[in-house]
Design brief:
The chain has helices at residues 44-56, 75-83, 100-110, 124-131, 136-148, 169-174, 195-201, 205-216, 280-284, 289-301, and strands spanning 11-15, 61-65, 90-95, 114-118, 155-160, 182-187, 219-223, 230-235, 241-245, 258-261, 266-268, 276-278. With 325 residues, the chain is α/β, with parallel strands linked by helices.
């Protein structure tokens, strides 16, 4: 399966819920959002079927997202069903880690391959401020349990927001000196009602790199090929890597092979554009497998070349919690 620009499409991000047990400043407006009724969201059978069709079309990697995917009822059994789909070689999850201490081992046994854990700071007070009430010790305990359960490689995602955690990147980077983890720093992206946070809070990857090098020494390149969203480096003597994801200042659209399926069953063609195609309605109206595959492939073919952040054309219809990472 390829899009109109010839890019192979092998990676599907599947949002399992629009709900979360944290309220991060760059993800959810302070006054919250209107959650969709459960009946409007993909049910287990529907999610599995759409992932099956995607695999038949050439998708080989699935990442489960949210909201927060671990708050979905029956998440372990759903992962087990997804893990049995032929053609999938990687089933990952992006999570805030709050529930990993109890779920990591069951998820690993069910067939989950690895996890990306959101961790924007190690400072307990800063963490409470960014997440509006979260506890960083629960996330750290979840990371430890995930590593012990074999959900590797461990990747930690830090969204860097000026005025919140730009001073915390050094402590996060230092984790790689003692752990074989990849700590990834992400430029904050503008979405809907939280676009003002990104506008005021953008910290470029180059600024983050300079801050880390000033404190911890040179960053040696590991992979700058552009085949992954992250450009990776390593501190000298470190066990792990540092990744820098720069959607605003150094877009990687030319090599992007990702599609996103929202919790309400829409195929989102670009994370940072509002264009979506409804898959849930024809599915519930009785479309056949072949008809659904044709709808899926035709939608995927129409993917835009990239976002339009440089023109300040920000996505307005949804915020990140409603899309999935």
């Amino acid at each position: 399966m390829r899009d109109q620009y010839g890019r192979p499409l092998t990676d599907l991000r599947v949002s399992l819920t629009d709900r979360c047990n944290l309220r991060c400043v760059y993800c959810m407006p302070e006054d919250g959002i209107a959650f969709r009724p459960p009946a409007d969201l993909l049910q287990d059978d529907e999610a599995v079927l759409l992932i099956e069709l995607a695999a038949e079309l050439g998708i080989s990697k699935v990442r489960l997202t949210g909201g927060e995917p671990t708050v979905r009822a029956g998440i372990v059994s759903l992962v087990a069903r997804i893990a049995r789909i032929p053609g999938l070689v990687d089933i990952a999850m992006t999570t805030n880690g709050v529930l990993l201490e109890t779920l990591a081992e069951p998820l690993a046994r069910a067939g989950l391959t690895r996890v990306n854990v959101s961790l924007d700071t190690l400072d307990p007070e800063q963490f409470r401020r960014i997440t509006r009430g979260g506890h960083v010790d629960r996330v750290l305990a979840g990371i430890a349990r995930a590593e012990a359960a074999g959900l590797r490689p461990i990747k930690l995602n830090a969204v860097v927001v000026r005025g919140f955690n730009e001073d915390d990147v050094v402590a996060l980077a230092a984790l790689t000196l003692e752990h074989p983890w990849e700590v990834r720093f992400i430029e904050v992206m503008p979405f809907g009602d939280v676009a003002d946070v990104a506008d005021a809070g953008i910290v470029t990857s180059e600024e983050t790199m300079a801050r880390i090098e000033a404190a911890l020494g040179p960053l040696d390149p590991v992979d700058l090929s552009g085949t992954s969203p992250a450009r990776t480096y390593r501190l000298r003597g470190a066990l792990g890597d540092l990744g820098f994801i720069s959607p605003v200042t150094q877009p990687f659209c030319a090599s992007c092979g990702r599609l996103r399926l929202t919790a309400d069953g829409r195929l989102r063609l670009c994370l940072l554009r509002d264009a979506e195609v409804d898959l849930l309605t024809p599915l519930r109206q009785g479309a056949s497998r072949d008809e659904m595959k044709a709808i899926f492939a035709a939608a995927a073919y129409r993917r835009p070349f990239g976002h339009a952040l440089a023109e300040r054309l920000y996505p307005k219809a949804r915020v990140m919690i409603q899309i999935g990472g």
